[in-house]
Task: structure prediction
Amino acid sequence: MTVQLHRLPNGVRVATEHMPGLQSASLGVWVTAGGRHERAEQNGIAHFLEHMAFKGTKTRSALQIAEAIEDVGGYINAYTSREMTSFYARVLGDDVPLALDVISDIVLNPVFDPHEIEVERHVILQEIGQALDTPDDIIFDWLQETAYPGQALGRPILGPSSRVEKFDQRDLASFVRERYVPGNLIIAAAGAVDHDAIVRMVEERFGGLANGSVQDTEAGKFLGGETRVDKGLEQAHVALAFESPGYRSEDVYVAQVYAMAMGGGMSSRLFQEAREKRGLCYTIFAQASAYADSGMMTIYAGTGAEDLEALFGLTIDELRRTAEDMSAVEIDRARAQMKAGMMMGLESPASRAERLARQLAIWDRIPDLQETVDRIDAVTVEKTRDFAAQLTAAGNAALALYGPVSGAPSVEEMTGRLAA
Result:
């Protein structure tokens, strides 16, 4: 498998990886513009724009966009995250030119028809309502807002209904002009692809774009706090977060290894202690999220109101213990899980294309897989214990609670117990 890169004179980046033996390919346009690139009055516009891209272009209707890909047995979709928006497709190798033409069309030539805006507005408002009705979904939005209050990085990707209800054609077109500039565009493809052919097609479709300027992004600063919504649900949903390294930090892999050992699988500490040994919950896990300039170490659990106090106490005790007794066996297992998960995930062209785009967005290059493996292997017991000690000594955390949570400890009580 060979990774090849190309940069157009206007700044558009192209990355491909040919995967011998495959007859399919995955490709797309990744735009380094997501929720955190919105101003407060724009909150939700990046996600709205993702929806509208499929609602018609200057040459294709919404139905024609879907039919063009599905007539050849392909698949097309998109997503919006806090730092990126992606439009992607998977097709057979012979249909790569068609897929790239369709994706280029929806990114470069959306018409934002007023009628379609109203239709999709209703769809998005239903999506927001569905998220609000899903406790183990909405709690992570609340946690994000609590960790980064009053900041772009803390605002929900879907946006509030009050904003979504007001967006119009001018708002959408304005965000495209501001953020969909060549320096923010990455075209990535993997599988049965030919690099030179992809570059020619990208040059034809994107080469004429004016350079534009890549605007600065508001920095993220983890502040922490508490959001508590007491409601008569069957389960109490709890999410606790501490600041952890951003993805450009040398310690980002330490955080990920720690999260895996702490709550990344059935053999992890929290799963074994909280669920298997004491039966305090059905679901509990830890994860490390990373952004350009910050990150979050998150622990989530769903439990009954009567078990909240015991679960909180156990979690705090385990957080404190890891700074002293995280073992080589645990670290070895976590590293093995991370490496195996990464390698198995990269057996699909979709994962390969996603990796190309994300690595380019972060580093402006594509690190060799061995480089990533080496960084994971460089995580030691000492580094992990030091990371755990920094978490417990930080003094600030973010806590989101939803359900029958009136009797749960406060974030101040939790951090106080950690520091004791």
